[in-house]
């Protein structure tokens, strides 16, 4: 790894991300979640604590206005009555609201743009991690390729602009990948897995499913180190996040009278995830519709509370018990879609404006694909590129893994990291952005396609193991 090439990758990443930041910083992508967490951050800075705002109507109406306008409204433009009703935060982890508060405190206002600028700067370091990891694994040229793909990866660039925790999950996953590759070259010393535990703790503060990453990565060490040594490292890497979560768990016990380790909404997520495809038991992929159905049967229940989650658990378990064929079909659909057709946002308005979609064009004109391509050549070209790119990266990763199959023990922990992000998505709910951390591993393996064949020294790196 050379400083000049690393700087070039950072500049390339900034060149991709900065135009998206400047032109689409107020896009409504995941705006409901962003607004809810933004209001939590404001409550922190206003001395109300880790609580979500649940009213009044003057605040709630802005949620609908944002969606109608397709535009994110800064939190400083929301009313802030001193007697606004609140509820303790439990639906999501506290990491992102705390990050917002940390940035907003010196910035002097509740605007998303400074937060997004910080995210873009940090996200531009992600190619450096892949460059370093790829160089250690497969040589300098493969490292540059991995870093270049990451710098130019438009879904990753877009995610760094969206004021949401997923960009942080992606960045922390990149650090985990780099740590695992570095640790393998050192024989996986105990201290490296302590560092991995600290990084995993940071990831869990943003998204609870990050907790399984050190477990799966340590399990993947068994063929290389044996079960005892792998278990010790896994215990350290998991024990540190659990210790960090202890104050949060004590807080939840005090407030909700149950020791909730991370957050609620597990059963609600599974139930609404069933609504991704047609079903005969009433599950729909819609927060409001699901809450309305639960509240009709249980008046007074609070949305996203532990009690709300409890009410959906029997519905999920009954569906699991009575419809195994449905579950298999849903999981296979998610797996195929996640690996081949994730349909991530690219941050290119021409392809993501609903008014310029093929469905809208066909509804207006009745024209087919050829007519659409003639009327919207740019949108059609980008959509075709997205369609083709979906299976390319996983396909190259499979070829790279086959090419370097002699090093499968070394690569197994990286595959474990990918599996740790893929499995919850397949089992719970599918959105393309949830799988981008796994794409970091696909990127490294794809770069292996262009590394020296086994038996020849890797340029700029160590010889093939």
Describe what you observe in this structure:
By secondary structure, this protein is an all-alpha fold. The chain has 23 helices and two strands. The protein has helices at residues 3-24, 31-45, 57-69, 95-107, 112-123, 126-138, 140-152, 154-161, 166-185, 190-206, 212-219, 222-225, 227-256, 266-274, 287-297, 306-322, 324-340, 349-352, 358-365, 369-375, 377-403, 408-427, 436-448, and strands spanning 51-53, 86-88. Strands 1-2 form a two-stranded antiparallel sheet. Helix 1 (3-24) packs antiparallel against helix 5, helix 6 (126-138) packs parallel to helix 23 (436-448) and helix 22 (408-427) runs antiparallel to helix 23 (436-448). The longest helix is centred in the middle third of the chain and has 30 residues, at 227-256. The chain is globular.
Structural key phrases:
465 residues; mainly alpha
Describe, in short, the structure shown.
By secondary structure, the chain is mainly alpha-helical.
């Amino acid at each position: 790894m050379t400083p000049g090439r690393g700087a070039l990758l950072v500049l390339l990443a900034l060149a991709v991300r900065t135009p998206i930041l400047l032109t689409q910083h107020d896009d409504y992508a995941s705006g409901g979640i962003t607004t809810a967490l933004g209001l939590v951050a404001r409550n922190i800075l206003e001395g109300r604590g880790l609580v979500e705002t649940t009213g009044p109507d003057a605040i709630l109406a802005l949620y609908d206005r944002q969606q109608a306008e397709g535009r994110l409204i800064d939190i400083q433009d929301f009313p802030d009555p001193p007697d606004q009703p609140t509820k303790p935060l439990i639906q999501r982890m506290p990491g992102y609201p705390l990050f917002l508060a940390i940035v907003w405190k010196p910035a002097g206002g509740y605007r998303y743009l400074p937060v997004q600028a910080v995210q873009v700067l940090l996200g531009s370091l992600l190619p450096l991690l892949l460059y370093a990891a790829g160089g250690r694994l497969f040589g300098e040229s493969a490292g540059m390729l991995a870093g270049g793909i990451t710098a130019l990866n438009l879904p990753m660039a877009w995610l760094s602009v969206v004021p949401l925790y997923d960009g942080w999950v992606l960045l922390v996953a990149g650090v985990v990948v780099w740590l695992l590759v570095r640790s393998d070259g050192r024989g996986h010393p105990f201290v490296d897995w302590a560092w991995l535990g600290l990084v995993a703790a940071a990831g869990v503060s943003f998204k609870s499913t990050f907790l399984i990453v050190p477990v799966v990565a340590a399990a993947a060490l068994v063929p290389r180190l044996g079960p005892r040594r792998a278990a010790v490292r896994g215990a350290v890497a998991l024990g540190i996040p659990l210790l960090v979560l202890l104050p949060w768990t004590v807080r939840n016990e005090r407030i909700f009278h149950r020791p909730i380790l991370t957050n609620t909404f597990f059963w609600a997520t599974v139930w609404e995830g069933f609504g991704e495809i047609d079903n005969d038991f009433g599950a729909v992929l819609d927060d409001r519709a699901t809450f309305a159905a639960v509240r009709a049967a249980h008046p007074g229940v609070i949305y996203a509370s532990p009690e709300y989650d409890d009410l959906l658990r029997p519905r999920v378990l009954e569906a699991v018990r009575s419809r195994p064929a449905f579950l298999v079909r849903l999981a296979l659909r998610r797996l195929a879609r996640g690996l081949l057709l994730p349909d991530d946002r690219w941050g290119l308005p021409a392809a993501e404006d609903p008014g310029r979609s093929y469905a809208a064009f066909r509804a207006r004109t009745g024209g087919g694909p050829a007519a659409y391509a003639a009327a919207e050549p740019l949108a059609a070209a980008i959509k075709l590129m997205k369609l083709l790119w979906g299976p390319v990266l996983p396909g190259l990763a499979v070829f790279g893994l086959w090419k370097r199959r002699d090093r499968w023990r070394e690569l197994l922990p990286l595959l474990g990291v990918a599996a740790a992000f893929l499995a919850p998505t397949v089992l719970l709910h599918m959105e393309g952005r949830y799988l981008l951390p796994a794409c970091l591993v696909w990127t490294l393996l794809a770069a292996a396609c262009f590394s020296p064949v086994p038996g020849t020294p890797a340029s700029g790196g160590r010889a093939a193991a």
